[in-house]
User: Which sequence fits this backbone?
């Protein structure tokens, strides 16, 4: 086996050993509220040795015996326990029996699985350039996945855990993000109950839902015929319109908000939901039109021509042929527009002064004051985040289909 091959396997195991022990330690700290110091050196050495064992067993010609990943896991466990003197994490004695074992199991399984995936197919002997690049790419993808998962999940975890705290607990230890089950379900959800009973958050939800759904309807009402006209009809300036449809979307909202504030104040549209329903579709129609025109161009024009020959009007062709075939694109556009309207803050903050018509984002900002406990602010952020997150995960397949539709012709 060339030194390069040994080095690749050793570095891969070292990287995943250290990464796994640090991630488990951070997770353990967040769950228990006590600082868990990982034995990174012992974990790195254990990961290095387990990776070499995995490659060696994978290269063996013997078809019987335990799989290579089992040998790797056993090696990882034994060396880690010896190197860290049977304590992979420095934790207070009181919680070691509860969490140390689970954390150790998760570390061994996680590090072994990651190393096995990255070194799958690696054999003793020279490695080609392609084989080395495959390992590099797998390691880079795995590390990237871990980093981005932490970036996304950690703020959400902090937000949720803070919303479940009491004021006394936060004042005593603001960094304690563990769950205190001793206060019961009523105590854990007290912030959410008070938001709906004392801070009118139920009305904020209804207003945001109304504005978001109305924005979706208005956007589709204008963007569907516009996208169809740009993609199917021939008229002077069609090419220019198709290319410049996103120009308005490129104008920063902060540039528009001051002139609109002055105009809406004179027209009596400020501090009304009607004003928002004028601004929101104006900012979402261009991107919706751009997305839909690409999809409409990918539909077979022969179907529409056959409909016209059968006596359908152009509107009938759109309603009975084009739209039924465009459901994935319509679903993705609707989801995208809904998310924009649900999360929009700048225009709502500038235009709305009456708490009775606050949107959810505007209502959450109203909690950011010294008179409102921080757990209420975090609970409001959770309420604002969860609905759109659930909707996005539910319709994710439509979003992917709609964004990629029309990108390839043929």
Assistant:
């Amino acid at each position: 086996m060339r030194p390069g091959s040994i080095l690749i396997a050793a570095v891969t195991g070292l990287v995943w050993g250290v990464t796994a022990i640090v991630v488990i330690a951070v997770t353990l700290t967040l769950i228990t509220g006590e600082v868990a110091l990982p034995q990174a050196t012992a974990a790195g050495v254990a990961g290095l040795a387990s990776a070499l064992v995995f490659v060696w067993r994978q290269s063996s010609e013997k078809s019987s015996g335990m799989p290579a990943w089992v040998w790797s896991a056993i090696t990882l466990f034994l060396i880690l326990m010896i190197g860290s003197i049977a304590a992979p994490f420095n934790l207070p004695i009181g919680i070691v029996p509860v969490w140390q074992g689970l954390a150790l199991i998760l570390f061994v399984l996680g590090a072994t699985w990651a190393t096995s995936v990255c070194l799958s197919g690696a054999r003793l002997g020279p490695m080609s350039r392609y084989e080395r690049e495959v390992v590099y790419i797998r390691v880079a993808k795995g590390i990237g996945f871990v980093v981005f998962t932490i970036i996304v999940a950690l703020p959400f975890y902090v937000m949720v855990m803070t919303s479940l705290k009491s004021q006394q607990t936060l004042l005593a230890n603001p960094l304690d993000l563990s769950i205190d089950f001793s206060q019961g379900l009523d105590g854990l959800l007290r912030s959410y109950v008070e938001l709906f009973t004392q801070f009118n958050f139920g009305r904020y939800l209804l207003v945001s839902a109304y504005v978001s759904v109305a924005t979706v309807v208005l956007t589709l009402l204008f963007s569907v015929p516009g996208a169809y006209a740009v993609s199917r009809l021939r008229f002077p300036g069609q090419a220019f319109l198709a290319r410049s449809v996103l120009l308005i979307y490129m104008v920063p909202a902060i540039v528009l908000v001051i002139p609109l504030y002055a105009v809406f104040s004179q027209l009596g549209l400020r501090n009304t939901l009607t004003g928002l329903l004028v601004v929101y579709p104006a900012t979402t129609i261009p991107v919706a039109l751009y997305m839909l025109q690409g999809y409409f161009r990918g539909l077979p024009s022969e179907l529409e021509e056959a409909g016209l020959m059968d006596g359908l009007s152009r509107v009938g062709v759109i309603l009975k042929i084009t739209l039924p075939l465009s459901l994935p694109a319509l679903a993705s556009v609707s989801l995208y527009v809904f998310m924009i309207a649900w999360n929009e803050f700048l225009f709502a903050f500038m235009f709305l002064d009456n708490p009775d018509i606050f949107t959810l984002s505007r209502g959450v900002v109203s909690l950011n004051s010294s008179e409102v406990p921080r757990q209420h602010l975090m609970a409001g952020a959770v309420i604002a985040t969860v609905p759109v997150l659930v909707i996005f995960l539910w319709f994710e397949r439509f979003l992917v289909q709609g964004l990629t539709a029309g990108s390839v012709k043929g």
Observations:
- Residues 129-163 form the longest helix (35 residues).
- The chain is about 75% helix and 0% strand.
- The radius of gyration is 29 Å.
